[in-house]
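name: query_chain
kind: protein
chains: 1
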Amino acid sequence: MTRTRTLVLLRHGESRGNARGVFTGWIDVPLTAHGEEQAREAGSLLRTHDLRPTRAHSSALTRAAHTCTLTLAAAGCPDTAPAHTWRLNERHYGALQGLERRAVCEQYGEEAYRRWRRSVDAVPPPLPAHEAVAYAEDPRYGGFGLARLPRAESLDDVRARLLPYVTEAIAPQLAAGHTVLVTAHSNSLRALVAHLDRLTPQETEELNIPTGMPLCYELDEQLLPVVRGGRYLDPETAQAAAKTVAEQGL
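structure:
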């Protein structure tokens, strides 16, 4: 009998940026009260389905790290200590960060808005250099230097900086038989799902990841999905929430 490995992907719960309808990117915002409740509900779902993570990873951003901690506690795994990395951060939205999605759509037009938001290769206008200095001084990104930090990213850029961490840190844990929880963001998870499921650019554009909804992948010995697309633990709610994500700002 072929043994499978379990990978659980979780987009953070609703953040204040989500609630305001803005491009948040690398801006570090907390969860709303609803987002905290989503994280606990995600953990309860994991417990109900007997999915107790023995290893966990989150981005370096507060909304993902807090979601991960709340989820693990609710799942009955408070002693599973998450690793935090900028490589799982949300896509850097450059000069769009902090702007309302609807305002960006109205200013630049729906075509540009859709490309910046959904395509794999479009890069938003870059963050001005003087605004990027704050990231270079942040200890979470220490040692990078201003020249190495992104000032805007395409989804392909996110995929390129995410995959080395997946290969070096997450894959060995899966191969060893751990149930691994990865708590990240809309676009870092889109990039990871596109890699796992070998999605085409068009399929990737149509992919939407809802907040607070555990997505479970069973992987074979080559760490490939047994079922393409995995399975949401609450599929009906996840489908409706993904539709809402697709329509944001329009």
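note: The first strand starts at residue 5 and ends at 11.
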